[in-house]
Amino acid sequence: MAGDPLRKRATYEDVLNAPPHMTAEILDGELHLMPHPRRAHLRSASGLGSFLFGAFHVGVGGPGGWTILYEPELHLGADILVPDLGGWHAGRLVDREDVDEPYISTVPDWVCEILSPGTLRVDRMKKMPIYARERVGHVWLVDPREKTVEVFRHEGHAYVLVGTFGGDDAVRAEPFAAAEIPPAFLWGKDSAEARQP
Fold this sequence. Notes:
The protein has five helices and ten strands, in the order αββαβββββαβββαα.
């Protein structure tokens, strides 16, 4: 039972000992194991990540100015989270040759969680409050089944919903409003399909 004072709190050792086919996170002291994502989830994460990496990390077709990473392991206080994508304004996440840790302790400026039936509750009810506590500037919740992108901005101590985007429309939303994200990068539609009359 959550919150039971007699229950042993999960540790990083539990994360390291997790089965290789599972993603392990520690949320409020409790170990959460999630199977690796299914295809729709992977398509959305890969497509969105590749677009943002090109436009905002490298600056091809966009302004650059960000570090975008796929499935970064975040150590935020006692919590360990693995969002589908994480982003830091340029210069905030400094790579040093003397540091080769498999995790990141610098709070991201943006995270994206791709929702699936098995992760929906955990993403909304467990991870969002941790992101708010750590003052992550923006959180995107992307639902490939519903073709929606919910964009949240951190204000005060909580998140406000900036807007819900998606369907067959391109997405232009903060903090990446400098470039328009074509729907093919979010939902994985074949560009040949999109060209059909």
